[in-house]
Amino acid sequence: MSRAFRFLAVLLSLTIASCSPSPSGDSQKAQESITPSPISLPDGAQECASPDTYSTIKEIIFNQAVQIAGGDPVPINDLRLASSTRMDIPLVKGYNSNLKRAECSGRFIISIPVTARTAFSGEQELKADIAYSVQPAADGQGSVVEVNGIEYIVRSIVSANAIRSARRVEQQGGPHLVNTFNPSFGCGPRLTNTERMICQDEELSQKDRQLSSSFKLVLAASTGTDRQLLLNYQRRALAERATCAETSCLSQWYEKMLAQY
């Protein structure tokens, strides 16, 4: 190939390249055309679908059940700690921008733990279509939640608790234990199987008193968020203790807890 011919070939290729459209500009325009716009949620959607709101509704339900059952939270706490909740199709029904108050509705569901389902006639979940509102508390600490439509769930919990309490008394062979070693709680007629084992074991009762005393000292020195976190931890720990079916399991649990205080 002659030198002149090679020069023309190079010149032609440069001309074609300079006339070609810029791929970067087109790709940028294409990218802009397919980039989705941000989704705009309605006012109040975050409050209506907040896990904190669901947790508060659960506490309202169980607190009402405790009041109806006589004011003693111990027999119902096992169910409170072991159950989980969710909301199906939470909807915003209205929003007051001045009060920042969201009006909501949805189907509230409490999942019943397997160990308690016989007292609920085999039901696995408690469901109720509820209406609820959420707005900031006046002191700026959290939110105020009001709820309507929970009566069925509350009655179901109270009824099931009465059945479970009656069964515990029957399994224990009577209303009171004959020999107890005075743990930190009373060894009356309304005991779980775990509490019964502690009451009738001298070593476990001693460890229970020791743990209770240590926990109270730590709790007294705690305030605000730290105090609430400590109480939440205690609830989870007691739920773990309730799963023990033998004294050896309880002994290990107390040793682990005492090592933390």
Question: How do the helices and strands line up, and which of them pair or pack?
Answer:
Blueprint: H1 3-19, H2 23-34, H3 45-48, H4 51-68, H5 74-82, E1 84-96, E2 101-111, E3 125-136, E4 143-148, H6 151-171, H7 193-199, H8 202-220, H9 224-241, H10 247-258
Antiparallel strand pairs: 1-2, 2-3, 3-4
Helix pairs in contact: 4-6, 8-10
What would you note in describing this structure?
- There is one protein chain.
- Helix content is 52%, strand content 16%.
- The protein is of the alpha+beta class.
- Mean pLDDT is 82; it is low at 1-20.
- It contains 10 helices and 4 strands; from the N terminus they run αααααββββααααα.
- It has a 4-stranded antiparallel beta sheet with strand order 1-2-3-4.
- α4 (51-68) packs across α6 (151-171) and α8 (202-220) runs parallel beside α10.
- The chain is globular, with a radius of gyration of 31 Å.
- It has helices at residues 3-19, 23-34, 45-48, 51-68, 74-82, 151-171, 193-199, 202-220, 224-241, 247-258; strands spanning 84-96, 101-111, 125-136, 143-148.
Q: What is the end-to-end distance?
A: 92 Å
Low-pLDDT segments, ≥5 res:
1-20
Helix-strand sequence = HHHHHEEEEHHHHH
Helix/strand class = alpha+beta
Major sheet: 4 strands, antiparallel
User: How large, in whole angstroms, is the Cα Rg?
Assistant: 31 Å
Approximately what portion of the residues adopt beta-strand conformation? 15-25%
Strand order of the largest sheet: 1-2-3-4
Tally of contiguous helical segments: 10
Average pLDDT level: 82
What would the principal axes of the Cα set say about the shape? Answer: globular
How many strand elements? 4
Helix content: 40-55%
